[in-house]
Design goal:
341 residues, mainly beta, Immunoglobulin-like, 2 domains, 6-stranded antiparallel sheet, 5-stranded antiparallel sheet, 11% helix
């Protein structure tokens, strides 16, 4: 069936199983919007070796009929977005539309975006097995990025109907000297899926590879410092993209503080002059070459609400003994950023 046939089709006349009117609308929206397609590169096994520590992929992910499965489109809409973390994700993300089935589990990557620091990938899962209310991907399960020494982030899988799940992963790859490339090449080879409510584990062979171009953003230099007796924090810049806001910072802590608390990590409270909350204790990723004395990092949150003229960023240092042995908080003064109109 051609694209013209799809566009001319009366989607309300389609016969769909277990599909709501909302899901029909999502299919129609997905067909009509003009997203760019991600380049799909085939040498997955080589990429896995370059990353290091990743298992060698033995299969390939090819475009499939995944775009015709209603619940597997616009996955981002299933996730709560009161903090505008995913605003414009659908408009500016890249359509991946890759699907693989193994041992009764179909995994489909829906969309992905690279804001120059972080990568967000939405995906969906349909299974013949009963995983119950919660599912997780067995380790090692993380996305790999060619040329990166590793990555950190978060992943969430939510059940939306009987044996159907949607997932969202946001991660920050670590590159040498924080030199982020214009294009990233991504691999993903989940090895098994586990139920969180029973002993079920299903292993299989799923392997994906695709690349993403960096979104262009506007960088506003800040270079403002706040400090306490033992911590000096400098907000270097704020970058505004169509899908996110990224702050870059540096901090220096004293040897005396590190002797008492071996881990000093900032989290953030971010609001604007209209009262919107963008972060309330969230953190980010970073790197230190001297056991935490000097630390460079970035933190990402959602796009700024229209009409806001000031952004308030308050660092809160979490000084920890690690391994759940105790911690304390060091609250620094907020930094006020005048937003450019």
């Amino acid at each position: 069936m051609s694209m013209k046939d799809w566009i001319d089709m009366d989607i309300d006349q389609l016969v769909l199983l277990d599909v709501t009117d909302i899901e029909k609308a999502r299919v129609k929206q997905h067909i009509l919007k003009k997203h760019k397609k991600a380049p799909i590169w085939r040498d997955i096994a080589v990429a896995a070796v370059i990353i290091g520590g990743a298992s060698t992929a033995t299969g390939f992910a090819f475009p499939s009929l995944a775009a015709q499965i209603p619940f597997m489109n616009n996955v981002i809409n299933y996730f709560d977005d009161e903090e505008q973390r995913y605003k414009n994700f659908e408009a500016y993300s890249t359509d991946i539309d890759l699907s693989q089935t193994s041992n009764g589990i179909t995994v489909m990557i829906d969309n992905a975006v690279y804001d120059g620091t972080n990568i967000t990938v939405s995906f969906a899962i349909e299974t013949d097995h009963d995983f119950g209310e919660t599912m997780r991907i067995s380790a090692p399960n993380w996305f790999g990025v060619v040329g990166a020494s590793g990555s950190g982030g978060s992943s969430d899988i939510t059940k939306i109907s009987d044996r159907r799940y949607v997932g969202l992963s946001t991660f920050r790859p670590h590159f040498k000297n924080d030199q982020y490339p214009e294009t990233v090449e991504i691999t993903w080879s989940p090895q098994a899926f586990n139920s969180m409510s029973n002993d079920l584990e299903i292993r299989g062979n799923w392997s994906f590879g695709f690349s993403l171009d960096r979104l262009e953003g506007d960088i506003q230099l800040v270079n403002e410092t706040v400090q306490s007796k033992d911590v000096k924090f400098t907000l270097k810049s704020v970058e505004f993209t169509d899908v996110s806001t990224v702050i870059a910072y540096e901090q220096v802590v004293t040897d005396e503080l590190l002797e008492q608390w071996p881990s000093i990590t900032p989290v953030f409270q971010v609001t604007d002059d209209l009262g919107h909350v963008y972060m309330d204790g969230g953190g980010g990723g970073g790197v230190s070459t001297n056991n935490g004395k000097n630390f460079k990092g970035t933190t990402t949150f959602g796009t700024i609400h229209e009409g806001a003229s000031q952004l308030f960023i308050q660092p809160v240092e979490i000084a920890s003994l690690m391994s759940g042995q105790g911690h304390t908080e060091i609250k620094l003064d907020p930094i006020v950023i005048e937003l450019k109109k």
